[in-house]
Amino acid sequence: MTFPETIINIYPNLFKIDQTLDRLVKKIELLNFVNPINIEQEKQRFFASKYNTIPNFNYRKLNFNPHKLQQKLFKQKIHKIEDAETASFYKEVIYDYSGLIQCIETIGQGRKFYYNVLKCFGTPTQKDVENARFILHFKDEEFNQEMIPVFNAQEAQKYFVEFSKRYNFPFNLRLSSKTTAAAMVQNSTQTMLLKKKHLFSANQLKVLANHEIGVHLVTTFNGLLQPLKIFHNGFPKNVETQEGLAVFSEYMSGCLTLWRLKELSYRVLAADSLHKGNNFCDTFDLLHVQYKLNRDEAFNITLRAHRGGGFTKDYKYLTGLKKVYDYYKKEKDLNILLSGKVTIEDIPIITKWKNENLATDIVYKNYAFNKNENTNETIDFILDNLK
């Protein structure tokens, strides 16, 4: 989208730096590098060892020079941005992307990677762990036909194409054998990846449609339409809000289940297991033996936590859900949070930019946010009582 020259003329340094950062950070998509490329082989080896051999995962080679990219980031003359508050924000952007580069550079290097991840994502607090355990105390839901995994990836592909017609944005949809998730969005290429050999249940199709398309792709395409590229590339520390919005979309569309909340809780416990110094086998044992998760689910959650050398991001889904849920109960309108890869904490600067014509109203909305379709009182009780 093009914008009036008058706006660019008022803030020439801001737009110059924003566009330079856009060119520099296109390759900094951590999930593209942290997902192992030999998951299935190592999974079979791990199972054959009776869960006693730590998997040896391999990762994609980097397609950029991390050191040179860091140098270019820090060469930006942030102090020349016309507005002091905006300059301060972009200084945080530089630090945030620098941290993500350090994460990517050290993938597969054990604790070195883990310590870089801690700087970017943190680790669960005791309160987060208590919230997870609170959810796990609830009795499992009764068996539901919609939870049976019967749809292959090709059938899922057709479902998502049909679901996306209401949005009419030009995203790519392809199958992959190198993703840890059943589905994920690549922001930089506007692509939704589906796990090639995964079987999807009817409920999971609805969950992923509202999560990946309704939020992650909506914020991708809204971000592309903003005057400032940072809306698309991502505000600092945006994961918690983005994943919270995505899970909240599941809730509002009526497909968030207790099983799903428990899955998010196990992710918190897996991240906490990292914090306690446990290895892959220890975390798997916690989930499979102590919590009685079946071995495939236990392996997948353990993999997500231990990939790269220790990746704590997954605990943010539950903390983000609680933040978005509380924000919605107070404000009712979530549209400002769909304006790109933004955060709840940065709403004041988004509002300021809108007043200065540096940000615009959203084009694509999440239809699930129009009406609360959740009918599960237990889910409401849990979300109301998380700390």
The figure for the number of domains is 1
Shape: globular
H and E order = HHHHHHHHHEEEHHHHHHHHH
Provide the spatial order of strands within the biggest beta sheet: 1-3-2
The biggest beta sheet is recorded as: 3 strands, mixed
Mean pLDDT: 94
Q: What is the helix content?
A: 55-70%
Q: What's the total count of β strands?
A: 3
Q: Which spans have pLDDT < 50 for at least 5 consecutive residues?
A: none
Describe the structure.
The protein is mainly α. The chain has one domain. Helices cover 56% and strands 4% of the residues. The chain contains 18 helices and 3 strands. A 3-stranded mixed beta sheet has the order 1-3-2, covered by helices on one side. Strand 2 and strand 3 form a beta hairpin. The protein is globular and about 65 Å long.
Highlighted features:
globular; 387 residues; single chain; 4% strand; three-stranded mixed beta sheet; 18 helices
Short description:
The chain is built from 18 helices and three strands.
Please outline the helices and strands.
Blueprint: H1 5-10, H2 12-25, H3 30-34, H4 39-48, H5 66-74, H6 84-105, H7 111-121, H8 126-136, H9 153-164, E1 172-176, E2 183-186, E3 191-195, H10 202-224, H11 230-233, H12 239-252, H13 258-275, H14 280-290, H15 295-306, H16 316-331, H17 347-355, H18 377-385
